[in-house]
Structures are given as structure tokens and as C-alpha cells.
Design brief:
Its EC number is 2.6.1.16. Keywords: Aminotransferase, Cytoplasm, Glutamine amidotransferase, Repeat, Transferase. The protein is α/β, with parallel strands linked by helices and about 375 residues long. It is built from 14 helices and ten strands. Strand 6, helix 11 (about 230-250) and strand 7 (about 250-255) form a beta-alpha-beta unit. The longest helix has 22 residues, at about 185-205. Bound molecules: 5-amino-5-deoxy-1-O-phosphono-D-mannitol (M6R). 5-amino-5-deoxy-1-O-phosphono-D-mannitol binds near residues 59, 105, 106 and 107.
């Protein structure tokens, strides 16, 4: 049942190229220039009237929402607010009929996310669900559904569901941009072409895991660790950190790199591992200066970046891992993969139950 893999989590990490392809299938027209979402009830007129977007979810699905929100803002220029469902549902969020609420849930059964959906509908908003389980409560109650085609996810730690949610967000953001005319046909075709290359790029990451495995065995000996990044790298840092603590039980925190000196820098001491995500070129220089700050306090820094920056970064960091190059907005679909592997191998090195971490359930149906 694990298809020759030692754990469901590893199997599911390896299923990602297939999940990306399946989630894109039939949603891009044959010319490769347009997004087609034929099942959507949202009319073009309605799409043009949306004046703000709320993205609501829990845990890893929330982290996918952070990436999705940033991509919508960038491609469609609509204000987006992301929140965790357990907060959103109780704080009377400002929802109007022109708010589009997107709920994200692998299982489609998370109690807080379902309650957030109901709160949004009660306030007249159109609710779009991105979910992996057809026929789930959230899929049934939402006004629209974009299914992720990740296939059943068994491991408690979510991997292929997260990346499939990213693909769904890319498709939907492009669709919004297409209808509202905020991106040219050329630009949309350009992003689609880059999306088509993602599955093979993930395969290339999965074909070379030795360095990540060795690094995981190194961090498995530590009790505290930090992830830093800016922009989309920060969103992925949050996910990498959650994955690691969830299954390795190593205390880890993710920080927006520029926030460090507002408090957290006090925790950086000799040999503390810091994982610096440095894939977003527009803020690379800024991230490098934050790397230097932690290095100066003795941190042991690993950078995740693109091949072209490795030589330069190695002047400031202890180790660097390269991921294949794609468009900045698509990078999370690649950069998260080594972090999933890192969590997996760190958990393994610590002798934990990888697929069933302590205290956690796969589906959180109570609040
Ligand atoms: O089924 P959902 O996507 O609604 O679940 C949300 C979270 O409980 C889930 O993503 C959780 O954070 C994962 N265990 C993380 O790996």
C-alpha cells in the first residue's frame, strides 16, 4: 500500500509530480494560453465585481493560502486578507457581497474552516473551496469548488495536498487575471509554460536527496532551529517550520527575515541552525544582509537558493542547496520539496513515528 516506500509521507512526497499534472489537467486549454475552469459558477460579471478576497484555512492549508494570496495580489491587484479559520470565525470579519472568500482544506472536514465558510455565506459572500476530497462537507457547502487532484493523503503531515493547493491557486489567480484583464495574454501563457515544467523540476529535486538527508541528520541533533525568508520565501519558511516541528518535534520558528532584529535575533547563538530561504531575487540582497546578521552571532546557516547564487551565497553561509529555476511566483512549488524531505529525514533520524506524529490527527473535525 505504500508502493515500496518506507512511509506514506515519503510516497506522497514522490507523488507530487503526478499530483501537479493531474491538478492542471483539463484546466489549461490546448493552446497553453488560457485557463479554463468550466465547473465554476462564478460568472465573469461577478469576478469583475469582487473588490476584496479573504483566504481562510488551518495549518498547512493556511500556508498554501498565504502563497495564493500573494499571487492573487500580484497578478490581479485585488486586496487579499489571509487568516486562520479559528480566528476568522470569531472576529466578525468585514465581509460584504463583493468579498470572495476562499477556504482551503485537504480533508474538507476541518471544523473551524467549515464554520468560517458558513460565516462567510451568512454575510452574503461567494465561497470558493479548494479541497482534495470530493463530497466532503466543505466541498458540498461551498458555492464553488476547485478540486486538487492529489489523491488520498494518509500521512498526517501534509505534502502533496499543499503543493496541489498551490497549483490550484496559480490556476485560479491566472483565471482572475484573464477575466479582469490585469495580465496580458502573453504573460498568462508565459506563466502557464513555466507551470508545465514544474513536475519535471520536482522530479529532479527528488532524484538528489543525499545532501538534504545528510543535513537532516545534522539538524536532528539540535533542539532549536530557525527558518528565515522574505516575501514568498517567508510563506514557505512557515510551512517548512511547521512540517519540521510536526514530525521531528524539533522546536522551530519561521521569521520574516527583516523582523529578526525586532526581538528574535536575541535567540541566535553559537551553532543554532538557521535555514535561510533565498530564492526571491527581488529581495535577495536584503535576505543576504539578514543572513550576515545571524552569521555574525554564530549561527550555522543553510541557504536554499538557485544554482546561480550558490557561489556568492557560500561566502556568507555554511551550506547551500540549489533548486531549479522557475518564475518567482511559482518557486514555492519547488522550494517546499527539500523542506518536506528535511522534515521527513529529521523525523526518521530521531526514530519518530513519521506518519503518525504524537498528539495530532489527520482530520481535525472538532474545534
Ligand atoms: O484537512 P485540512 O487541510 O483542512 O487540514 C488543515 C490542517 O489541520 C493540516 O494542514 C495540518 O496543519 C497538517 N497536519 C500539516 O501537515
Amino acid at each position: 500500500e505504500k508502493g515500496g516506500f518506507a512511509h506514506f509521507m515519503l510516497k506522497e512526497i514522490h507523488e507530487q509530480p503526478r499530483a501537479y499534472r493531474d491538478t492542471m489537467l483539463g484546466r489549461i486549454d490546448e493552446s497553453g494560453r488560457r485557463i479554463i475552469l468550466p465547473d465554476l459558477h462564478l460568472t465573469d460579471e461577478k469576478i469583475r465585481s469582487i473588490n476584496n478576497v479573504h483566504i481562510v484555512a488551518c495549518g498547512t492549508a493556511f500556508h498554501a493560502g498565504l502563497v495564493g494570496g500573494a499571487v492573487i495580489e500580484r497578478l490581479v491587484r485585488i486586496p487579499v486578507m489571509c487568516d486562520v479559520a479559528s480566528e476568522y470565525r470569531y472576529r466578525s470579519p468585514l465581509i460584504t457581497p463583493d468579498t470572495l472568500v476562499i477556504v482551503v482544506s485537504q480533508s474538507g472536514e476541518t471544523a473551524d474552516t467549515l464554520a468560517a465558510l458558513r460565516e462567510a455565506q451568512a454575510n452574503g459572500a461567494h465561497v470558493l473551496a479548494i479541497t482534495n476530497v470530493v463530497g466532503s462537507s466543505i466541498a458540498r457547502d461551498a458555492d464553488d469548488v476547485i478540486s486538487t487532484l492529489a489523491g488520498p493523503e494518509i500521512a498526517v503531515a501534509s505534502t502533496k495536498a499543499y503543493t496541489s493547493q498551490l497549483i490550484a491557486f496559480y490556476l485560479f489567480s491566472l483565471y482572475l487575471a484573464q477575466v479582469r484583464g490585469t495580465q496580458s495574454a502573453e504573460e498568462i501563457a508565459h506563466v502557464i509554460a513555466a507551470m508545465h515544467a514544474l513536475p519535471e523540476q520536482v522530479e529532479s529535486i527528488l532524484a538528489n536527496v543525499d545532501a538534504i538527508k545528510a543535513y537532516a541528520e545534522h539538524i536532528a541533533k539540535h533542539e532549536d532551529l530557525f527558518f528565515i525568508g522574505r516575501g514568498l520565501d517567508y510563506a514557505v519558511a512557515l510551512e517548512g517550520s511547521l512540517k519540521l516541528k510536526e514530525i521531528s518535534y524539533i522546536h522551530s520558528e519561521a521569521y520574516a527575515a527583516g523582523e529578526l532584529k525586532h526581538g528574535t535575533l536575541a535567540l541566535i547563538e553559537e551553532d543554532v541552525p538557521v535555514i535561510a530561504l533565498a530564492t526571491q531575487e527581488s529581495v535577495l540582497e536584503k535576505t543576504v544582509s539578514n543572513i550576515k546578521e545571524v552569521k555574525a552571532r554564530g549561527a550555522d546557516v543553510m541557504a536554499l537558493t538557485h544554482e546561480e547564487h550558490v557561489t556568492d551565497l557560500l561566502k556568507s553561509v555554511d551550506q547551500a542547496f540549489a533548486i531549479p529555476k522557475t518564475l518567482p511566483i511559482l518557486t514555492p512549488a519547488l522550494s517546499v520539496v527539500p523542506l518536506q524531505l528535511l522534515a521527513y529525514y529529521a523525523s526518521l533520524a530521531r526514530g519518530n513515528d513519521v506518519d503518525k506524529p504524537r498528539n495530532l490527527a489527520k482530520s481535525v473535525t472538532v474545534e
